[in-house]
C-alpha cells in the first residue's frame, strides 16, 4: 500500500515492537530506533522515508530531532507522537513543518491514514524533485516556451509573444519533448508547474 | 538595655542643657540688676553730692558775712551775736560760732552756741589759721564724732570759727533706705549714717559710689554704699519662673522629638512589615503555583508513563486482530478478546485525555513582562533561605528591560526551582564559599536566564535524563522539579538546557523568545 519505508524513533521498547508488529500487518516496511542520536547518525545513509518520532525522549525531543534531520538534508515527512497531547508542542510542531501530530495511544486507523498522507507527500516530493531535475535540463528560452505551452498557448501565440518565428518555437517544443521524455501537453503543464525551481 | 541607656543619656543631656540655660539666665539677670543698682547708687550719690556741696558752700557764705561783721566791730557787739544766733537758728547743723582773737594773749571774743556745740579753743584756732592769708578758711577735724570746724582768718588778729555737726549736712529723707553714707576728710572719717548691714548675707557684695564734695574749704569725700544680696541680683521668683518654663519647654521639645522619632520608627517598622508581608504573599502565591503545577506535572508525568504501555497494548491488540483476520479467525473468541482489549485501552486513553485536560486548566495567563522584575523578585525571596544556609546569591541584570511573553509567577517558579537545586548542590559539597549566580541577558531576539553554582556539577550519566519526569538525582526527590521547569518554559515557546560550567558546577540556561516588538506595540 505504501512503498516508502517508515522510520520509528521511540525510547520505549514495548511501543516500538507493538507498532512494528501492527504496521507489519499492513505490509508497511518499518525500521525502529530506540536512540535518537544513533538514528541521526544513520539517517543520511537511509532511503528517504516517513519519520514517526516520539516527542519526549531523553536528551533530545522529537522536534529537535526533526530539526536536526532537516539540517542534514533528511527533511522527510514527519509525524510526531506524544503522550502529552500538548497543544503548545503541537502548534510548534506544525510551525516546524511536521505533517501530523498524533496523541498516544494511537489508533491504527489514524496512524495508517497519517502514514498514507505522509507517504503521498514523500512521493510528491520525489516527483517534484524529478520534475525539477528534468526542467533544470532546459535552456532559459525552452523554459519560457514550456511555461507558455503549459498555460495552453498555441505555437503562433508563443511565437508572437517571444518575437520568434513559429518554426523556431516548434524546434524548441521538439527539444523540450525530447528532454522531458514526453510530448503530452498535459504532462508539459504538470512538469512546468511542479518542476519550477523552489 | 542600650535603649534604656540612651534614654538616660538623653535625660542627662536634658538636665545639663536645662542647668546651662538657667545659669545663663541667672548671669544675665545678675548683670542687668547689677548695672541697674550701680546706676541707682551713683544717681543717689550725685544728688547727695550736689546737696552737700550746696550746704558746705553756705558755710563759706556765713563765714564771709560773719567776718565782715567782726571786722566792722573790733569789739564784741550785739550785731555779731544777733547774726550768729540767727544763723544757728536757721542752720541747725552749725552748732557754735566763735569770734576768736589770735595770738598768745588771745581768746574767744564772742561766742554763740546751740545744743551740742562747743566753744572753740583759741589756741587750736590760732594754730589752724597760722599760715593762712587773711580771708582764707581752713577745715579742722574735731574730736566729737560727726563734728568739724571751719575757721577763717579775718586779719592778723581775728578769726571766725564754725562748729559744724556733719549729720546735719544730710537730711533724713534725702538718704535712700538702702544707703550707707560716709563723709571723710584727709584726716579721717567724719561721719557714717544710714543703713547698717549687720551681718553680710550669703554671696552679698557691696556697690559703692565715691565722689569729692565740691568745696575748697571743706575737702570732704562722699561715699555711698549699698549692700546687694544675691536675691537682689538674681531675683528668685523670675529665676524660678524661668527655670520652670524652660524645663517645661525642654521637656515638651524632647517629648515632641521622642514622639517624632517614635513615629519615624513606627513608620519604618510598618514599612518593613508591609515589605515582609508582600514577600510572604509572593512566597504563598509561588508555593500555591508550585503545588498546582507540581500536581499537574505529576499527573502529566503519570499520564506519560501510562501512555507508553497503553500504546503498546492498543497497537498489539489491533495487530493481533489483523493477524487473526488473516488466519481466518475474524469474529472468533480470540478476536473478540482482542477487540475487548482495544476497547479497554481506548477507555484508559480517554481517562488520560480527561486527566490532561483537567491539568491543562491550571496553566497561567501569559502577558508581556519584564523578566528583570521576575528574576530580582525571586532572587530577593531566595536570598533569605540561601543566606540562612551561608550561600551567596549573585545577581547580574541588564540595564534595559528584557521583555518576554510569560506568566511571571510560573517563570519565577522555574528560576526558584533552579536556584533551589543549585543551593542544594552547593550544600552537598559542604564548601564554605558556596555561590549561586543568576544572570539575565538578551541577545538575538532571545531572553536568556542562567543559574550557575559552584557545586560538584551534574554526573554525565544523569545529564541526558535530567528533565524526565520521576527521574531524580536526589534520594528524596520526586523528580518533578526540572520536568516542571521544562513544561513551563516550553509553554512559553522557550527551552531549558543543562550543562556543566567551565568551573565544574552545574549551569542551567533558560531561553525564551524576547517580546521586544510586542512590548513596543503594547506601549503604543
Provide the helix percentage of chain A: 55-70%
Strand order of the largest sheet of chain A: 2-1-3-4-5
Work out the helix count of chain B.
10
What's the N-to-C terminus distance of chain B?
A: 59 Å
How large a portion of the residues of chain B is in β-strands, by DSSP E?
15-25%
Structural class of chain B: alpha+beta
Plain-language structure description:
The complex is a heterodimer of chains A (198) and B (524). The longest helix of chain A is centred in the middle third of the chain and has 29 residues. Chain A has a five-stranded parallel sheet, with helices on both faces. Chain A is of the alpha/beta class and 198 residues long. The mean pLDDT of chain A is 85. Chain A is built from nine helices and five strands; from the N terminus they run βαβαβαβαβααααα. With 524 residues, chain B is an alpha+beta fold. Helices cover 52% and strands 21% of the residues of chain B. Chain B is built from ten helices and 16 strands. In chain B, strands 2-1-5-4-3 form a five-stranded antiparallel sheet, sandwiched between helices. In chain B, strand 1 and strand 2 form a beta hairpin. The radius of gyration of chain B is 61 Å and the shape is rod-shaped. Chain B starts with a helix and ends with a helix. At the A-B interface, helix 1 and helix 4 of A face helix 5 and helix 6 of B.
Question: Could you name the key traits of this structure?
Answer:
heterodimer, A: 198 residues, alpha/beta, 9 helices, 5 strands, elongated, B: 524 residues, alpha+beta, five-stranded antiparallel β-sheet, five-stranded mixed β-sheet, 16 strands, 21% strand, rod-shaped, disordered C terminus
Would you kindly provide a brief summary of this structure?
The complex is a heterodimer of chains A (198) and B (524). With 198 residues, chain A is of the alpha/beta class.
Amino acid at each position: 500500500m505504501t512503498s516508502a519505508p517508515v522510520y520509528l524513533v521511540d525510547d520505549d521498547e514495548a511501543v516500538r515492537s507493538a507498532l512494528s508488529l501492527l504496521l507489519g500487518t499492513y505490509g508497511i516496511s518499518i525500521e525502529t530506533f530506540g536512540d535518537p542520536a544513533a538514528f541521526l547518525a544513520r539517517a543520511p545513509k537511509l532511503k528517504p522515508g516517513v519519520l514517526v518520532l516520539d516527542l519526549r525522549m531523553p536528551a533530545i525531543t522529537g522536534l529537535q530531532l526533526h530539526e536536526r534531520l532537516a539540517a542534514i538534508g533528511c527533511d522527510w515527512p514527519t509525524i510526531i507522537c506524544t503522550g502529552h497531547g500538548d497543544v503548545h508542542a503541537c502548534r510548534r510542531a506544525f510551525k516546524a513543518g511536521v505533517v501530523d501530530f498524533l496523541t498516544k495511544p494511537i489508533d491504527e486507523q489514524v496512524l495508517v491514514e497519517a502514514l498514507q498522507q505522509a507517504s503521498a507527500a514523500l512521493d510528491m516530493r520525489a516527483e517534484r524533485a524529478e520534475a525539477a531535475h528534468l526542467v533544470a535540463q532546459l535552456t532559459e528560452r525552452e523554459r519560457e516556451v514550456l511555461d507558455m505551452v503549459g498555460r495552453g498557448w498555441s505555437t503562433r501565440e508563443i511565437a508572437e509573444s517571444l518575437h520568434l518565428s513559429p518554426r523556431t518555437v516548434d524546434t524548441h517544443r521538439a527539444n523540450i519533448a525530447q528532454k522531458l521524455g514526453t510530448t503530452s501537453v498535459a504532462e508539459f503543464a504538470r512538469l512546468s508547474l511542479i518542476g519550477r525551481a523552489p | 538595655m542600650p535603649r534604656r541607656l540612651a534614654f538616660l543619656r538623653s535625660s542627662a543631656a536634658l538636665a545639663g542643657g536645662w542647668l546651662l540655660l538657667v545659669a545663663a539666665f541667672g548671669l544675665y539677670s545678675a548683670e542687668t540688676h547689677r548695672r541697674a543698682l550701680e546706676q541707682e547708687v551713683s544717681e543717689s550719690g550725685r544728688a547727695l553730692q550736689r546737696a552737700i556741696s550746696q550746704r558746705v558752700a553756705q558755710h563759706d557764705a556765713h563765714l564771709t558775712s560773719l567776718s565782715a561783721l567782726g571786722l566792722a566791730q573790733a569789739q564784741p557787739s550785739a550785731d555779731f551775736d544777733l547774726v550768729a544766733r540767727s544763723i544757728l537758728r536757721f542752720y541747725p547743723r552749725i552748732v557754735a560760732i566763735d569770734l576768736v582773737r589770735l595770738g598768745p594773749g588771745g581768746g574767744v571774743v564772742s561766742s554763740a552756741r546751740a545744743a551740742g556745740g562747743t566753744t572753740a579753743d583759741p589756741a587750736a584756732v590760732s594754730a589752724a589759721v597760722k599760715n593762712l592769708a587773711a580771708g582764707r578758711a581752713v577745715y579742722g577735724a574735731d574730736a566729737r564724732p560727726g563734728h568739724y570746724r571751719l575757721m577763717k582768718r579775718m586779719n592778723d588778729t581775728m578769726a571766725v570759727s564754725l562748729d559744724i555737726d556733719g549729720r546735719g549736712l544730710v537730711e533724713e529723707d534725702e538718704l535712700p533706705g538702702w544707703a550707707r553714707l560716709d563723709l571723710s576728710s584727709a584726716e579721717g572719717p567724719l561721719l557714717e549714717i544710714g543703713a547698717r548691714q549687720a551681718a553680710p548675707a550669703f554671696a552679698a557684695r557691696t556697690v559703692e559710689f565715691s565722689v569729692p564734695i565740691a568745696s575748697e574749704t571743706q575737702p570732704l569725700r562722699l561715699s555711698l554704699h549699698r549692700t546687694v544680696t544675691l536675691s537682689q541680683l538674681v531675683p528668685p521668683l523670675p529665676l524660678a519662673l524661668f527655670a520652670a518654663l524652660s524645663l517645661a519647654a525642654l521637656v515638651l521639645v524632647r517629648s515632641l522629638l521622642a514622639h517624632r522619632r517614635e513615629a519615624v520608627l513606627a513608620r519604618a517598622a510598618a514599612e518593613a512589615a508591609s515589605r515582609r508581608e508582600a514577600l510572604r504573599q509572593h512566597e504563598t502565591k509561588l508555593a500555591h503555583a508550585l503545588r498546582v503545577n507540581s500536581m499537574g506535572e505529576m499527573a502529566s508525568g503519570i499520564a506519560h508513563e501510562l501512555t507508553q504501555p497503553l500504546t503498546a497494548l492498543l497497537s498489539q491488540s489491533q495487530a493481533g486482530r489483523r493477524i487473526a483476520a488473516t488466519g481466518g479467525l475474524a469474529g472468533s473468541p480470540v478476536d473478540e478478546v482482542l477487540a475487548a482489549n482495544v476497547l479497554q485501552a481506548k477507555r484508559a486513553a480517554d481517562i488520560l485525555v480527561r486527566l490532561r485536560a483537567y491539568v491543562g486548566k491550571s496553566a497561567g495567563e501569559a502577558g508581556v513582562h519584564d523578566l528583570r522584575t521576575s528574576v530580582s523578585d525571586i532572587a530577593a525571596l531566595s536570598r533569605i533561605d540561601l543566606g540562612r544556609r551561608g550561600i551567596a546569591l549573585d545577581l547580574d541584570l541588564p540595564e534595559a528591560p528584557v521583555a518576554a511573553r510569560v506568566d511571571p509567577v510560573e517563570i519565577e517558579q522555574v528560576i526558584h526551582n533552579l536556584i533551589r537545586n543549585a543551593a542544594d548542590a552547593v550544600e552537598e559539597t559542604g564548601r564554605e564559599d558556596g555561590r549561586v549566580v543568576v544572570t539575565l541577558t538578551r541577545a538575538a531576539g532571545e531572553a536568556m536566564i542562567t543559574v550557575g553554582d559552584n557545586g560538584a556539577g551534574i554526573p554525565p550519566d544523569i545529564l541526558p535524563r535530567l528533565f524526565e519526569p520521576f527521574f531524580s538525582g536526589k534520594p528524596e526527590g520526586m523528580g518533578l522539579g526540572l520536568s516542571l521547569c521544562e513544561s513551563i518554559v516550553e509553554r512559553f515557546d522557550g527551552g531549558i538546557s543543562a550543562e556543566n560550567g567551565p568551573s565544574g558546577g552545574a549551569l542551567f540556561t533558560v531561553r525564551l523568545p524576547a517580546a521586544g516588538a510586542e512590548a513596543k506595540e503594547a506601549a503604543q
